[in-house]
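User: tokens in, sequence out, please.
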């Protein structure tokens, strides 16, 4: 039976995202308090869908289903909106909001914890401080895994609700000019969002202090997707008059290795009535929240302040995603196997990212794959480019192990073939 995970924003194609948005829209338009009614039209919606979300559904609603939540990092909105979504779908929730109360505090590995929790539930939501941990969790889970944030790497469900908010408020994504402001280096929300926006035909202005620029690996993917859609700079004033939306982010203090560096950049940008004089009448201001001073509370009453409307969309969007993933994984019908990316295990090569799960878990084997847009060899868990090229790996020859890898394309099995004796 295939399992569809949502670990990276790349795990949903445009059509699948469209299904999430259109179901979320129906939920918003309905009486959300009326769970019975919502379930009724979710069932109807699912029966109209093509694979992987549709087809012959077994128990398509979430009634009687259990969501596991494993939160190893603080969260207010993400965890509570997932829990609220599952309850509104008629399901229930188990889990922990603090790893200190789980067996992790006794030294249990992430792989073991996930194997255990996934045998108690039908869908698993994980937030973890280590990059690539959600991918590793999905490889150890019997049920669909949703990444609710893995360190500074990705936060794909936040992206779904960000895109949904833009569609609701602006009517479209294509052609929109969106400024991403603040901590683009450590901000996982903008790592997922920038890619989804460019893919959807929007233009992104990346506005940050020099030391918090968007990582080069993400920049090169954005430029490969559409070089003309990406601009970069540090002056908010310069970009503001051209923007349809401004997505503000918090400087991620907890991710800085040097607290002095945080002190140097904190408070670089403050959005308030005065700053927003330079913006258009309709420039929408969004923020994944929490804010810690980068948007003045006095701006909240401005109609352009969209962040509390955005936060409320977290529930219908997560309801739609969870209903669809649960339906997809309970669908017994055999599916065409998605094209599988080739994974590579060059002997002795380690992921250069010190914050990657491959350096934290005991029994994990580094694995790399060719990034489809840039052609670079990247870590299959945290996407960090490896200091080798595809050609180097070919030349190295001996010791190479090739595996059909389901981590990138959502395939259903890992079939290994050894190409040497090592
Ligand atoms: C974000 C996160 O956790 O990455 N918050 C959220 O999920 N809404 C943003 C942040 O913490 O700054």
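Assistant: Sequence out:
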């Amino acid at each position: 039976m295939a399992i569809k995970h949502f670990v990276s924003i790349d795990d949903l194609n445009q059509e699948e995202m469209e299904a999430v948005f259109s179901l979320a829209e129906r939920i918003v338009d309905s009486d959300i308090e009326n769970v019975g009614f919502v379930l009724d039209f979710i069932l109807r919606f699912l029966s109209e869908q093509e694979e992987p979300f549709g087809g012959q559904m077994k128990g398509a609603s979430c009634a009687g289903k259990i969501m596991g939540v494993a939160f190893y990092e603080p969260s207010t909105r993400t965890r509570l909106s997932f829990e609220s979504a599952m309850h509104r779908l008629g399901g229930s929730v188990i889990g922990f909001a603090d790893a200190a109360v789980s067996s992790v505090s006794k030294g249990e590995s992430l792989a073991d914890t996930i194997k255990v929790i996934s045998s108690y539930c039908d869908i698993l939501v994980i937030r973890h401080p280590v990059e690539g941990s959600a991918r590793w969790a999905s490889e150890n889970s019997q049920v669909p895994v949703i990444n609710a944030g893995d360190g500074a790497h990705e936060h794909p469900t936040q992206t779904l609700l960000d895109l949904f908010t833009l569609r609701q408020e602006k009517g479209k994504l294509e052609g929109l000019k969106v400024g991403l402001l603040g901590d683009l280096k450590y901000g996982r929300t903008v790592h997922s969002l920038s890619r989804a926006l460019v893919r959807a035909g929007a233009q992104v202005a990346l506005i940050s202090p020099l030391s918090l620029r968007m990582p080069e690996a993400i920049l090169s993917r954005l430029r490969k997707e559409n070089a003309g859609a990406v601009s970069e700079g540090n002056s908010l004033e310069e970009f503001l008059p051209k923007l349809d939306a401004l997505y503000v982010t918090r400087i991620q203090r907890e991710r800085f290795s040097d607290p002095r560096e945080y002190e140097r950049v904190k408070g670089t940008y403050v959005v308030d009535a005065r700053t927003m004089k330079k913006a258009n009448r309709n420039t929408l201001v969004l923020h994944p929240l929490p804010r810690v001073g980068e948007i003045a509370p006095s701006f909240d009453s401005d109609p352009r302040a969209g962040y509390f409307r955005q936060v409320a969309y977290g529930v219908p969007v997560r309801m739609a995603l969870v209903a669809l993933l649960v339906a997809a994984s309970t669908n017994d019908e055999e599916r065409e196997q998605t094209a599988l990316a080739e994974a590579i295990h060059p002997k002795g090569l380690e992921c250069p990212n010190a914050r990657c799960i491959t350096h934290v878990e005991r029994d994990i084997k580094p694995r790399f794959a060719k990034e489809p847009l840039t052609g670079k060899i990247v870590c299959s868990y945290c996407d960090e480019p490896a200091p080798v090229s595809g050609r180097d790996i070919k030349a190295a020859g001996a010791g190479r192990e090739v595996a059909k890898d389901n981590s990138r394309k959502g395939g259903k099995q890992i079939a290994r073939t050894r190409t040497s004796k090592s």
